[in-house]
Amino acid sequence: MTLQHVILSGGSGTRLWPLSRAHYPKQLIPLLGDRSLLQDTVARLHGLDVPQAPPLVVCNEQHRFMVAEQLRLLERGDGRILLEPVGRNTAPALTLAALAARADGDDPVLLATPADHVVRDAAAFRAAVAQGLAEAGRGAVVTFGIVPDRPETGYGYIRQGPAQGPGYRLAGFTEKPDQATAEAYLAGGDHLWNSGMFLLRASVWLAQLERFQPDMLAACRRAWEGGRADGDFCRIDAEAFTACPEDSIDYAVMEPLARAGDVPALVIPLDAGWSDVGSWDALWAVGGQDEDGNVTRGDVLSHDSRGNLVFAEHRLVGTVGVEDLIVVETADAVLVARKDRVQEVKALVDRLKAAGRDEVLHHRKVYRPWGSYESIDAGERFQVKHIIVQPGASLSLQMHHHRAEHWIVVRGTARVTRGDETFLLSENQSTYIPLGEVHRLENPGTIPLELIEVQSGSYLGEDDIVRFEDHYGR
User: Fold this and answer.
1) What is the CATH number of the domain that holds 453?
2) pTM
3) Residues 6+ apart with CB under 8 A from 442
């Protein structure tokens, strides 16, 4: 029996703005250490003594190169990446993964987990997965319920029935409760938080989806069958997937399955330091507080301050005499909020979207398949960028209608194509790309290439690019 880890990485994490952005969401960010939440999710199964297929990540098409790079840094470049052209919630995403898992005739047990959760005790998590594997292999549907430690109104709940195998019969699901109900759930001891993690055979998921959501399965099949391989990625048919009904795993299958009661379904309690880090106060709770209850990262000085989360990305941040605040500083935005009102950060994000502001989409540092660039300064007819090109990578062969560019190498070696000539530049050397000239920048070396780019012209938008050749299929 093979275990296929399916990592659902389609979320945008808007409640963690300004650190999480649409083009660089929370699962790709190292919130609690050196690794991102996605990398922690992949690494969590290391040490589980069962045959495992390479991880399978279902993600937004815009995130594909960052996901691939993070897998490579974990030495999991063998992982498969399915690209969603649009978001359709978790049920269609798991269906694509199940179709991919069954494509070669196998029927592995799927472990479906979100990419953006924290699990502090990975050994306890692996033990719970091992407990459920045999049941799932025999055709049962297994989910994991988080043992609650407080009356939480922000989570859905799972109601557990009589003991069954390594867990309890899955008796039903409950929506987010009010405070009094949450307190009753905690006191009663038969309700667990819904973790959104599931364990079941690929064939079982497809059969139950056909039973409860046949239109969704049909649309996913059309999208899968109309897809194609694209290098390291699997692209599905965009038109077919856009027409797919949108729903979560819980609503589409798990809740009607629990009501029907004719398929073995159980919940395994999980006490492993879990959090969905869905808001800044949740991150504060798991962030490792100091003796004053503060969680800090970066260059932070606090005086007579308690119960705060303070993240400093680019400069010194100081606090004096404040309590229960969230302060997050990035290169282009600063958030200050009361800890008990962080759920309202989404209202700020909605206002940014309505105003068409770039701060909701990406940071000043923007990641590309070849590396990254960061805007350092800008004016009416100029822009200065810090560009990093990874070893062996290259930008597209391109041209601009409205801007010229000056490149100054500050580290590494650059191979420059400019019109009909190709030449090398080393540190402290520079070149000029006239407006309308076809050009390309490459890093032939073994260390990252860093350069300063000065753009000048009448229009400096990123859409002023005509690509003639691109290694990344853009």
Assistant:
1) 2.60.120.10
2) 0.90
3) 389, 393, 394, 395, 414, 415, 416, 417
